[in-house]
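Subject: Sanity check before I submit

Could someone independently write out the structure tokens for this chain? I want to compare against mine line by line before I put it in a report. The sequence has 208 residues.
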Amino acid sequence: MEAPEHRDTDFDELKDAYYHQTKALYDGGVDLILIETIFDTLNSKAAICAVLSLFDEPAYPPIPVCISGTIISNNGRTMSGQTNEAFITSILHANPLCIGLNCALGATQMRPFLSVVSDWSPTYVSCYPNAGFPNPMGEYDETPEIMTPKILEFAKSGFVNLVGGCCGTRPAHIKAFAEAVKGVPPRQVKKTCKYFSLIRAGTFGFYS
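---
Independent answer below. Compare away.
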């Protein structure tokens, strides 16, 4: 019988591994911590717990944390079955600087889900999609010329504060995106967004 709750590791083991990784990054001088390509929110919560544990230590004052999830199909859910709304609800306690989507889907398929994230997120929103879906040879076919209008449309629609590229993108893609969105007003961060009110101390509540 399949057991959807089954994991090949446990929470404490993951938390310990993420703690040591985060500490090494911090000691190396990083400016922020990015927890990304999240397909299982329980896994990401272990990473969040590790990061916050490090920040509790006097020698490691907090630095910004960004969190990015991955939608694996057109049903708008992560691999572990969460909707965008549930994903955001699950990670807001980390008080992230930025919440977003990356990887898996190309920009065209990502758009409706990015719109939901923009509506729900009370913080900055990021987006860095793949260069389309991989072809039968495992390569990505969307050129900067194909992707850039899609990224620009995200910006003009007020969905994003940060744009970039994931699998299949190259420096030429990133350069084209940056040039395209230059001068486009970024998404306005909503302290009270469509469904949430975020208190900067790290708590949140539902609107009725």
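---
OP: Matches mine. For the report I'm noting this point. DSSP finds six helices and seven strands in the chain.
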